[in-house]
TrEMBL record:
<dbReference type="Pfam" id="PF00144">
    <property type="entry name" value="Beta-lactamase"/>
</dbReference>
<keyword id="KW-0378">Hydrolase</keyword>
<protein>
    <submittedName>
        <fullName>Serine hydrolase</fullName>
    </submittedName>
</protein>
<dbReference type="InterPro" id="IPR021860">
    <property type="entry name" value="Peptidase_S12_Pab87-rel_C"/>
</dbReference>
<dbReference type="GO" id="GO:0016787">
    <property type="term" value="F:hydrolase activity"/>
</dbReference>
<feature type="domain" description="Peptidase S12 Pab87-related C-terminal">
    <location>
        <begin position="405"/>
        <end position="497"/>
    </location>
</feature>
<dbReference type="InterPro" id="IPR012338">
    <property type="entry name" value="Beta-lactam/transpept-like"/>
</dbReference>
<dbReference type="Pfam" id="PF11954">
    <property type="entry name" value="DUF3471"/>
</dbReference>
<dbReference type="InterPro" id="IPR050491">
    <property type="entry name" value="AmpC-like"/>
</dbReference>
<keyword id="KW-0732">Signal</keyword>
<dbReference type="InterPro" id="IPR001466">
    <property type="entry name" value="Beta-lactam-related"/>
</dbReference>
<feature type="signal peptide">
    <location>
        <begin position="1"/>
        <end position="18"/>
    </location>
</feature>
<feature type="domain" description="Beta-lactamase-related">
    <location>
        <begin position="30"/>
        <end position="360"/>
    </location>
</feature>
């Protein structure tokens, strides 16, 4: 018999906005809002849990695990936590602080000497805290996992080649590689893998026995598939590879299990039988550490908070006079968000299986309003309008790019002279081959593949093999020798190797 998604509701008498207890009718209306929002954003499947006063108020699965198949999402269905994993890594770090094995202000070089940055001063001054708050001056380096498959230690060695985007501790730019470094430091201190230590110190005490440190640990098939809009059609796509060091975003969990984590983090890290962190360490994690810019999240355009800060693994801002702690998680085709309203002891977690479906933000603020602060603002519609506008801006930018193409130009050299091997100490290697009148690009042993046609002059443009990656742009530079000197492939520069 086919199973259906079932609501698992726990109605706990408590006083929300207007000092009225939450009624079954309010729960039903919230449930209906969530489902309507899911459909409004075309998300195939979602799961949500809402906790208040250390109890689960509401949890439910919606839609399907995989488009075109009947298997429903339920509260046991596993989804990617993605970057909400970062708060778990920070908590492990906090445990080591409590045990005297680590200090937030220890130099990173004490534990990870192979992590070298372009400025020796920054390498020397880089603290554990800096790894966790995105203030190092080093911009995003996701190409180290998206465009290549290399060991974490090799990533750390290559960081010396990355030019800073802004001065040390003078800005904010999201940095996954440094959370990978945090995971490696944990491993060196405890003598266990990050994954095993996470299971031992967080999942097992909290009873999160269905939560996996990485997708590769999952043993059953009640897990979602990722989805992406390709040419305006939502399709199932491949899972991304499990990262060697998953401390930046590899955990998978379910609505049932993640509820326990949400409650624990709201209640000063307490759980049945103990607490994960000392009260002062838990407080330090949620203490504002730096600022994040308004453009980090388009939602800030509508929310217009008075302040925006980042703690240790948590974004923060004010909302209706209250402090919000939150973090999103995004992998290709998968989304997550965790949100806290600490002074109301209210928390929410939303999983989704459609790439960057920002209904997650809408449901977080709806939860805060509905179960604590009052108001009936339709966040889903407002944010849908916002993100639809951004999508249109993206389409116009692509149209402008196409419109600016210089027609009737030709490449400088015969196509076969662009063929060959290209290397970079930072980006690895690229191989260009010729099939017909198109160039085939193979970056880092098939980590990226694209087939590009001539666009203009010595520029080529075309689709990635994995359609959800979009299109690639390759530009060749012909040197004074009359031969190809360098290749810039989607921003990564490679030097052509001489053939003898």
């Amino acid at each position: 018999m086919r199973a259906f998604a079932v609501s698992f509701l726990v109605l706990t008498p408590f006083f929300g906005f207007a000092q009225k207890p939450i009624s079954p009718k309010q729960i039903q209306e919230f449930d209906a809002y969530v489902e309507a929002a899911r459909k409004q954003w075309d998300v195939p499947g979602m799961a949500i849990t809402v906790v208040k006063d250390n109890k689960i108020l509401f949890k439910k699965g919606y839609g399907v695990r995989e488009l075109g198949k009947p298997d429903p999402v339920n509260t046991q269905t596993l989804f990617a936590c993605a970057s909400t994993t970062k708060a778990m890594t920070v908590t492990l770090m906090g445990m080591l602080v409590d045990e005297g094995k680590l200090s937030w202000n220890d130099p990173v070089s004490k534990y990870l000497p192979e992590l070298q940055l372009s400025d020796p001063y920054v390498t020397r001054e880089l603290k554990i805290r800096d790894l966790l708050i995105h203030d190092t001056g080093i911009g995003g380096t996701d190409f180290m996992t998206g465009a290549m498959t290399i060991p974490a230690n090799e990533m750390f060695k290559r960081m010396v080649l990355v030019k800073p985007s802004y001065p040390f501790r003078a800005g904010f730019e999201y940095q996954n590689t440094f959370y990978s470094a945090a995971g490696r430091i944990i491993e060196r201190i405890v003598g266990k893998t990050w994954a095993e230590y996470l299971k031992e110190r967080i999942f097992t005490p909290l009873g999160m026995l269905r939560t996996a440190p990485k997708r590769g640990y999952i043993k059953d098939d009640n897990l979602t598939k990722p989805h992406y809009s390709i040419n305006d059609t939502i399709r199932v796509i491949d899972y991304g590879a499990d990262s060697e060091i998953g401390s930046a975003g590899a955990v998978w969990s379910s609505a049932d299990d993640i509820s326990k984590w949400v409650i624990c983090m709201l209640d000063s890290s307490k759980y049945n039988g103990g607490r994960l962190l000392k009260p002062e360490t838990w407080a330090e994690i949620f203490k504002p550490q730096t600022f994040f810019p308004e453009d980090e999240y388009p939602t800030m355009r509508i929310l217009k908070p008075n302040w925006r800060t980042y703690g240790l693994g948590w974004y923060q801002h004010d909302y209706k006079g209250h402090k919000v702690n939150f973090h999103t998680g995004s992998l290709s085709g998968l989304t997550a968000i965790i949100g806290q309203l600490p002074d109301e002891k209210l928390g929410v977690y939303v999983f989704g299986n459609y790439d960057h479906a920002e209904v997650r933000h809408a449901l977080m603020y709806k939860t805060f309003d509905w179960f604590a602060l009052g108001g009936n603002r339709d966040w889903s519609t407002e944010f849908k309008t916002l993100y639809s506008g951004l999508k249109e801006e993206g389409k116009k930018a692509r149209q402008n790019f196409i419109a600016k193409r210089v027609l009737n130009t030709s490449h400088t050299l015969p196509l076969n002279q662009y063929v060959g091997k290209y290397t970079s100490p930072l980006y690895g290697q690229a191989e260009v081959s010729l099939v017909g009148n198109q160039l085939l690009f193979n970056v880092n042993d098939n980590t990226l593949n694209a087939t590009l046609s001539h666009w203009q002059y010595d520029t080529f443009y075309g689709p990635y093999k994995k359609a959800w990656y979009g299109k690639a742009l390759a530009q060749f530079n012909v040197g004074v020798s009359g031969k190809v000197d360098t290749l810039v492939f989607d921003g990564m520069q490679f030097k052509k190797q001489e053939t003898h």
